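User: Here's a chain of 426 residues. Predict its fold as tokens.
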Amino acid sequence: MAHAPTQHAIRDEVSRLQACALFAPGAELDRMLPRHIESHVMLGDSLQENRDYLLFDDLVLLPLLQDEHAELASVVRAVTGPQLCLDVRVMLGEVLADEAVAAEVIAQVLADDRLSVAERRVALVALTKLRGARLAEALIQGALPHTETAILPTPAPNLLFARDLWAPVGDAIALGWPRHRARFRDGILSRAIVTHHPQFAGVRVIDLRDANADPEICLEGGDVLNAAPNLVLVGFGPRTTERAARLLAERLPTDVEVLGVRLPLRRATMHLDTLLTFIDTRAVLAYLPAFDPHSRDDERCEVVDLRTGRALGCNLPAILGERLWGLQVVPCGDADPVAAQREQWTDGANAVCLAPGRIVLYKRNTWTLRALNRAGFEVLTPQQFVANSELLLQGDRRVVVAVGGAELSRGRGGPRCLTLPVARAV
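Assistant: Prediction complete.
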């Protein structure tokens, strides 16, 4: 197993990555069927929620998606080094090599209420025979890897978006629970990794469900942004509940200001990081209509101080500017009203920082790349960055690495969604 890095802290969104986790996509994506991409189905004369909906917008072409993900991973690895570019899939296999951990995880997975008593019995027998990486593959694919016999209701393709598995906050890891049924298994597997993998030995865990199993305590990592060492943003709405956001604020040190951002209940705004991400020490990339007081109520965010309950308005970039002097705001879609909506949908505001002023974004978001270029960011290919990474990480140079995302974006997630920082320079 990998050893924990000497520092384990995420105190902002932009300091140089020291360790980062990703989830290498595999056969689970080829097990998705048309019924898995329908949010609702007709039952009799009524339209009802599809219990097997997996949150993707389309079936993906796995070889191309794997190429795109490998390209992103090569960029991250050029910054962290190969030893600290971690694979969630591998870490899961390592913790499931332990018999007691494996038994605990299997029992939790089989609590899925879509399984009949008979199906649960068959799955228990089959899964108990597996250990380590083979058990991990069965739980990820929902099928026995050596026979491809389905033993669980669905695969677990959303593990691809590793950011949501847990939320690094300062020197701690915040654990909540996924809100959507499609990520029920993700919650179990991620908790097993944080609890049992030596990579996280000694790390303080803020378990928001440690005292109860309240279904309203749901938190995903895409809603948590470390704006500064003493300022944390927590979005709540489609995926993270307000109750979980307030509970997290209570558990953080009292000298940390915690701002809650109420998100529109829309598919396009599932997490806060689909609307705003940090791209330099005092710079953000933002989808501006979400923070405009003139936008429609169902398209606009509202900001609140989670400790005092005081309403702060809707203009989050301006609110951040009051706290982070001289904040630069780069508009998603170059502020064009049509391009902004289209590129926000394809993760144009979802950048991840490799180091201050060095970011990654999908190359399909051409209007946003143009806005970044105008703001002083040189647009590079992944190959250019990897070949010259040490030079490009020196000084004050600003670059945006434009990676492929035609297939990755079908799952509704961008470069920040796909990467889970474990440690940044402090």
